[in-house]
Structure prediction request, 624 residues.
Amino acid sequence: MIPSDKELIKAHERIKHFIHKTPVLKSESINKIAGCRIYFKCENFQKMGAFKMRGASNALLQLSETERHLGVTTHSSGNFGQAVALSAKLSQTKATIIMPNNAPNVKKEAVKGYGASVIECEPTLEARETTANEFVNKTGASFLHPYNCYDVIAGNSTATIELLEQTKNLDSIIAPVGGGGLISGTALAATYFSKAKVYGAEPEGADDAFRSFKKGEIIPMINPNTIADGLRTSLGDKGFEIIQKHVTDIFTCKEDEIIYAMRLIWERMKIIIEPSCAVPLAILLKNKSKFKKQKVGIIITGGNVDLAKLPF
Amino acid sequence: MIPSDKELIKAHERIKHFIHKTPVLKSESINKIAGCRIYFKCENFQKMGAFKMRGASNALLQLSETERHLGVTTHSSGNFGQAVALSAKLSQTKATIIMPNNAPNVKKEAVKGYGASVIECEPTLEARETTANEFVNKTGASFLHPYNCYDVIAGNSTATIELLEQTKNLDSIIAPVGGGGLISGTALAATYFSKAKVYGAEPEGADDAFRSFKKGEIIPMINPNTIADGLRTSLGDKGFEIIQKHVTDIFTCKEDEIIYAMRLIWERMKIIIEPSCAVPLAILLKNKSKFKKQKVGIIITGGNVDLAKLPF
Prediction:
């Protein structure tokens, strides 16, 4: 069942020793360019460098001691894997992460750095799921789904709970959409605790949520093609139900618009963000009149970039 | 005369509307690698992206209205030029910046973006000084020296005043040494307001302060060769006098050690810093036993990097 307001608050309480309360940053020069006031919730400064720590730790902390004793596993292109690995380490649990063989090196190394084992597989959703199922059947480990899971969604919502505490009267919040685990948590928290409207942001090259939202049913993403590697995932049904109820609209943008927005944040704010989190700013700059003079929250999802492969 | 404790406090009061109080950040994973506790004073988040805003605004604000009416000028490889340009803009003063023709593009563009004029010259100290003298003689503008000036040193000291307020009982503070304007301000503030020892950090390819400190007289830098472009400048005599009195030691490091430390800060802290500010961490990692278990302050001097020319 979709988590209630009380469950979101409980999740925040549950994970508080596993996460940082990340800062909200502003940039006068970006506000000038955008024509509105932007509040960046900086989950790139989160433990392991991404908001995924929130959902992963909340899901892991709901397992029984017996379950944890058998270990946990997940499949992830990177950040969720790191999040499970670190959450497992912090709670003395063994973690095994299934990763596509084309995941950025920095992410594979980080997972191993947190003491987890890595199993590589082909970079398809099918290969990931098969490999994970085989591992679960063999070991009895608990499978934590990266996004299609209410505990993960509730954990992710806590970034927005904090954002709302750290700001006043936001008009809008924009979050990127990959599997739907962040945007749905964002939408729940915004609906329960504020009057802010929530918008989704997607690359044109991975626009399944946009198309699914417009059609009213899930259209899976086939061959996504975008620099925003965190957003290549197909939308899950649990997130989609919440999106349909609580997200106002979803916008898409082009690759060069993502790179421009990413560079703007790097140069003006001096912070390192992944391409995925530049998508909301790209959307905002493309739809300036819509957000004119508003107070807009943007979730900066993570900062785990392969510095050897920058787009500029 | 070397600024007194009271003059440093006055400078801080004078410039407070021209600067941000920048945050002090920590990184558990870098502390683990270094074997001590490091407090990074993040002047990369300063207005215009560098600590130079402090010294420039303090020097400019000491001019009379008549002097400001004739304009200000300086020569700078970049950050001080931007700092004078922005300070001038904020106080309705005309600024003209003399820049070496090999300065990073991002710095030239930023100076122009703040409404200042740019005059390019050959990349030698002699060419800079001649061009600046000619301009002053022609226009009557006030020349603000980037580092060899007590008002600039007092302004720069305010970063350390804040660092000492934001932390408790630092054992050491490490700052990079270029012209000596930052390290001397750092050393004055640390001497007046704390028990912390101050150390200078230099690249081997621009080690004039190291050699001057050891010999007891200024040995100018000829043909500096380092990625740390902010540290290629030769040491000024005003800064040197303060260094001799109040700096405990100066250490040098190699280029690959600078690049390693820079990458470590980018990857672990998700913040963008110039190569110059990686030098103190490189020094610390090279001399771990010296700083073992200490509380160490490091001045992160700026974040104005040409993203098209990264060393990784």
Notes: The longest strand of chain B covers residues 197-203. Residues 73 and 253 of chain B are 34 Å apart (CA to CA). Chain B is about 45% helix and 15% strand.
